[in-house]
């Protein structure tokens, strides 16, 4: 089990005052912190939860220099920093966060939480429920709004009334947008990368075989696999899900040119070997139930739900906004970024990240993303 043992319970309790503290034993990197509270879920009931987060820089006296960085589906709070104990890779936006970088930590206070429902320190299906057993199949459904609600607790605990900037890509872009729609007074500027106002049928369609792959793995055991012997969990299903997803994260022309048709010595096409590699890497670091839960939270993403539609919801945004899409993104196509930008007051036309790398370009095209950040903060 990867998450800490505090878990949560679905109860009818009212929201509680958040409690913060240093991360307890078990954080090998030694820099994560946590906030603990409870929230009313959009689907009903209340969840006691913890959010893990990391920060860089210092909050200034008037609290005006805080930036909220939102990770994508399989990301985590380690947005910046070198690889080291507990973090085999450098932060996923290390090129953007640090002294002298676009998110200049000599000037800014940068905060990156692990998403509610995740498996990298925040409460999720692998966490312990009040009965001291993993939540597993009992973990409630979570929406993007619930995730943002939980992050409000973090902002309150940190003393951040208004973020100077909220930004993220993909699932992180959904949460960034939801912040600006649900709490417009608390978001001064907004950068949404490769994310829509509402998940489309095409995106839900790509998710469907991924969900089935995990659930049809006998090792999934209806979601209650945490006491299975090592290696007996739903690794094969999660690996298939990642292979499907990873194809959608990369550019078609990129794969064609990069891998060609020549089989490797072991008989696999190079692109098959590449997908196998990414599947194996994810299986080692990610919980299958979190993958299901977060995928379904993305499927349900629709800023217009119960708000009179997408147009009415977007008209609430008061942040200085840039929306950007990637010209080779086949999962979140550019037209969605254009539609989203058109709906947000003052956003102007969507920016275009030009790249062969597809959806993942928001993680790869550092200078182009840096320019967008500077345009907002400058
Ligand atoms: C914010 C967040 O959301 S997510 C956190 C970071 N994201 C992830 O971890 C998602 C998974 N990874 C990725 O999507 C990508 O690796 C990115 C976006 C992080 C970086 O993209 P790129 O730099 O273009 O990496 P690329 O997709 O080429 O993968 C490189 C890996 O494939 C391996 N690889 C390349 N070709 C082959 C092949 N034919 N066979 C096997 N492995 C191969 C490389 O050895 C390298 O392995 P390593 O990452 O273990 O060192
Ligand atoms: N590579 C990213 C893509 C999802 O947007 C991830 O795994 O989170």
UniProtKB/TrEMBL annotation:
Gene3D superfamilies: alpha/beta hydrolase. Its EC number is 2.3.1.31. Residues 66-364 form the AB hydrolase-1 domain. It is an enzyme of class 2 (transferase). Keywords: Acyltransferase, Amino-acid biosynthesis, Cytoplasm, Methionine biosynthesis, Transferase. It holds the Pfam family Abhydrolase_1. Transmembrane segments: none annotated. The active site is at 170 (nucleophile), 329, 359. Its main location: cytoplasm. GO terms for molecular function: homoserine O-acetyltransferase activity. Signal peptide: none annotated. Residues 1-30 are annotated as: Disordered. It is found in: Cytoplasm. Substrate binds at residues 242, 360. It catalyses: L-homoserine + acetyl-CoA = O-acetyl-L-homoserine + CoA. Pathway: Amino-acid biosynthesis; L-methionine biosynthesis via de novo pathway; O-acetyl-L-homoserine from L-homoserine: step 1/1. It comes from the Bacteria. InterPro entries: AB_hydrolase_1, AB_hydrolase_fold, HAT_MetX-like. Belongs to the AB hydrolase superfamily. MetX family. HAMAP family: MetX_acyltransf. Transfers an acetyl group from acetyl-CoA to L-homoserine, forming acetyl-L-homoserine. Homodimer. NCBIfam families: homoserO_Ac_trn, PRK00175.1. This is Homoserine O-acetyltransferase. It comes from Amycolatopsis acididurans. The lineage of its organism: Bacteria, Bacillati, Actinomycetota, Actinomycetes, Pseudonocardiales. The gene is metXA.
């Amino acid at each position: 089990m990867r998450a800490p043992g505090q878990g949560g319970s679905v109860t009818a309790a009212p929201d509680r005052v958040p409690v913060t503290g240093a991360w307890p034993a078990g954080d090998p990197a030694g820099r994560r912190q946590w906030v603990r509270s409870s929230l009313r879920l959009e689907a009903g009931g209340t969840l006691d939860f913890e959010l893990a987060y990391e920060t860089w820089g210092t909050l200034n006296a008037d609290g005006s220099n805080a930036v909220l960085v939102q990770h994508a589906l399989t990301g985590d709070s380690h947005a910046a920093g070198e690889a080291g104990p507990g973090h085999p890779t450098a932060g996923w936006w290390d090129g953007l966060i640090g002294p002298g970088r676009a998110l200049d930590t000599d000037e800014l206070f940068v905060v990156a939480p692990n998403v509610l429902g995740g498996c990298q320190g925040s409460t999720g299906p692998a966490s312990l429920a009040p009965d001291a057993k993993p939540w597993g199949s009992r973990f409630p459904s979570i929406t993007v709004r619930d995730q943002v609600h939980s992050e409000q607790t973090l902002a309150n605990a940190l003393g951040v009334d208004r973020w100077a900037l909220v930004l993220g890509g993909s699932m992180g872009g959904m949460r960034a947008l939801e912040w600006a729609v649900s709490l417009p007074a608390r978001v001064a500027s907004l950068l949404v990368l490769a994310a829509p106002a509402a998940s489309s049928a095409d995106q839900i369609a790509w998710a469907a075989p991924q969900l089935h792959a995990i659930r049809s793995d006998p090792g999934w055991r209806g979601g209650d696999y945490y006491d299975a012997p090592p290696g007996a969990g739903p690794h094969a299903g999660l690996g298939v899900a990642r292979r499907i997803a990873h194809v959608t994260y990369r550019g078609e022309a990129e794969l064609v040119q990069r891998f060609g048709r020549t089989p490797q010595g072991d008989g696999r096409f190079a692109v098959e070997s590449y997908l196998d590699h990414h599947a194996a890497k994810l299986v080692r670091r990610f919980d299958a139930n979190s993958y299901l839960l977060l995928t379904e939270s993305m499927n349900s993403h629709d800023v217009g739900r119960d708000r009179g539609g997408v147009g009415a919801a977007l008209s609430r945004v008061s942040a200085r906004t840039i929306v950007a899409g990637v010209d080779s993104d086949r999962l979140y196509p550019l037209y969605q970024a254009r539609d989203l930008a058109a709906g947000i007051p003052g956003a102007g036309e969507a920016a275009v990240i030009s790249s062969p790398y597809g959806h993942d370009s928001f993680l790869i095209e550092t200078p182009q993303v840096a320019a967008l950040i500077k345009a907002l903060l400058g």
